[in-house]
Request: fold
Amino acid sequence: MLKRFTERFRNLNPLLLACMAGLTAIGVAFVYSSCSVREDPDLQMLYMRHAEIGLLGLALCLLAAWTDYRPVLRWSWLFYLVSLVLLVLVPLIGEETMGAKRWLFGIQPSEPAKLAVIMLLAWLFSRPEGLRGVWVFLLTLVLVGLPAVLILLQPDLGTAMVLAPTALAMLFAANVAPRLLWTFVLAGVLAAGTLLGVIYAAEKAPMPQERREALIQATHLRPHQVKRLQVFLFPDKDLHGSGYNRRQSEIAVGSGGRWGKGYLKGEQYMLGYLPPSVSSNDFIFAVLAEEAGFAGSLTVLLLFLGVLSSGLWVAFRCQNDMGRLFCVGVVSLIFSHMFINIAMTIGIMPITGLPLPFISYGRTFMLTMMVALGFVQSVSTHGREAEIGF
Amino acid sequence: MGYCGQKRTASWRLAVLAVVFVTGLAVLAVALHRVQVVETSAFTRDQVRQSVRRVQVPGSRGRIFDRNGVCLAENRPSYCIAYYVEELRKRGKWQHTIDAVDADIDRLAGVLGVPRQISKQRVAAHVRQSLPMPLLAWRDVEQVTLARWAESKEAFPGVDIYVQPERSYPQGALAAHLLGYVGRDRPQPRPGEKVHFYLPEMRGMAGIERQVNAWLTGVSGEQLIRVDARGYKHTVWEGRPEVAGHDIRLTVDVAIQRALEKALGGRRAAGVVVDPRNGEILALASAPAYDLNSFVPAPSMGVWNRLNKDADMPLLNRALDGRYAPGSTFKPVTAMAALLSGGFNPEEPYVCDGGFVLGTMRLRCWNTYGHGTIALRKAIEQSCNSYFAHLGYVIGYDAIYAEAHKLGLGQPTGIDLPSEARGLLPIAGTKERAKDNRWRPGDTCQIAIGQGRLLTTPLQMAMLISVFANGGTLYRPHVVWREGPGEVVRSMGWPTGAVARVREGLHDVAAAGTGRRVRVRGLEVAAKTGTAEYDAGGVRRKNTWVTAFAPFGQPTVALAIVVENGESGGLTVAPMVRDVLVAIFGEPEPAPDEDTPVPAENAESRGD
Reply:
């Protein structure tokens, strides 16, 4: 019995597990850093919540690794439907914080929804060859678009947007309607370029005030989103208003220097220049980079490199499409989160409220990510059975 | 294996994704390298700039001593009750913190039993502008209030005693005009240093406090305060320590100063006592004065307005800034001018018949019966107007002007005190231009007896008589002590014989003439009285003078006193001079066989 149990873990990817655990440990350490200056005793204990959820996540991860992913993915349309229902329920009975309704019974349904989308697409794309044409592409747009719109309405632009690169990576890996895909990517790049161009023109080109406002109106973005893009384009425009967080996080990262100021010695969050409301989640990397310096930043990047490469290695070793595509979806999601988060912290991307996987405080997201990696481990343990089976 | 068995997801596509991921990580690594390694110093500087505040802390102000080491101005600790707003900070809007501090001040006012000293506006301004600094809610509180605070301080977190140095004048009103007073101002920042906050520094606003402010003021130090994003103090580093200012020693002698002020009493008067050997000011007083301690920490509006509106003008330093016609105290100058002009015979008799007539002008002598036949020595002793008017007429204005100018009249003496008046020594041409009126011999006669448009300050007259005391050297007067001989402004180059003749006359003034009331037993004094008439809104008033020096042989003291609206120099001022001289030299008990020295009250002693 015990032998059968351990047998299942024999093929766990140790690098993936180690990097995940390492990132989580770093997360606990720096959530402790950032919440230690909070006045509210509950908020001071935030790092304990993070550690607890890390342990729970590890347990769920191992459980997922132990489970065969194939029957689970076959039921993915059910998870997807449940996620959709929960996302619909959020605006109806959700809890509102800071102008956004994202929570339902203490969880953020948008996070498991991402996993459900990846699972569903992995299952869908691994159907027979005939199902990889234009219609599947369009179906994918609908399947990704539905939760994305619901998340966008919360509003949570970052989480909605991060679905796009994930889905694109999976479409690319599965070779679904390649021409349409590239057209789509090109259109997306053009759209983003146009959007930034319009905002740039509205700021710089000589024109009356009404025209400027009309141009901004035409983008159909919310005012705070427009501001974030403006801050990205013109970093010095409003340093005490909308540009404040970006400026302060950049100062935090930059003043960290090569080796950092030392653990628990970060000044930007301690003195409150980096607002405590964001320092333990979206801007945790600024805290880390200030205290641990460039050395710490590189360590984190290397650990993520470990997660991404071992995820891709699992996909490479997997002998079936479903497992491969699932792994591609998960590592793409992690990469997107990481890249956007760190890039916005140092000002090379507009600010979007995206957490840094395993390090940022955020319980639903943490659990989702760990379960997702658990299924990647499951691919590692079960995906090779096919090659034995043949 | 059904759908699971097919493998159409090409491995090269996974490799492409791997390349994308590695590229993404490399982009981040390069960007982080730029921010954290290449440009780190700029970000560190930005961080320091936004979080570090520099506070200027003034050095303690130097003390002022008299020539014998008696303290005239020092610093005393002033106990203030201060709020450290950090500890009362409230979440949310600033107004919450302001309200909390304000309410706490009200509560504390009730416990201490003292009225509030600062308004809510002041609290709000402090929270918004100088948050990391202590907010002084009560300044200079009394011991009983401190005791009450100590009893209940547990109930008031964020409140503490703050000790601030405050100027203190242990001698009260003594030498008020000489010392001046201090105000509060921000310390001088070092060039190129940005200062965010400061503790106010004492700055001299008048008198010696102002004159040697730079010497008394120390070098301000600095504290560095790290503040959080809301401006609250986070950590404090001791930066550069402040350097205390220097003490200063004056030439003034407190005993003489006190005697002079006592002699002047409450009248509108001024006096200067100087050492004729070097120009050291031994006492310098103007009356009426005011209590310096009422000017600490700064003159209140009430005190200031009262002093400003007072008809006696107590804020005016009459010794330096009061301008008076010297009257007969100018006559030694005329005498000297005559002696220096060739062909004047001091023994040549002149007949005073009670006046001097020149054309249609008649100058009355104070002795309406006339002094009869009189020569220079007697004319000085009796202060005969007729004689000196005649003398002026004979030698001409140019000779008088030359000598008066050499003696420093019409010019500042250059004393080391601010706001000194020049006085007025008319140039023969000025009257012509100003009034479209020619300079007439009558004008010369007026000047010769110290009247006319001539104006002098008591300090100038003290320096003038010093020249006669020391035999012909004009020193620059000074109140700040320094070693070595005095600074010579001018050597008169007077022949010994000439100056001796004037000195003989001055000796006789005190011994037997108009200034007999200055006489002190056992001391040979030389003096000159003066009574200058002036027109005060249609009423004839008299400014009365005595200038004197003693001991006659080797003078160590010279002085000038003026009293506004007096009777005559001999009656009003001479007893004051005597009091001062007694204070300086002492007076032995009268020998039993000696006659009482009190002079008879007769017409002679009334004159000048």
Observations:
- Chain B has two domains: 80-168, 254-606.
- The first helix of chain B runs from residue 11 to 38.
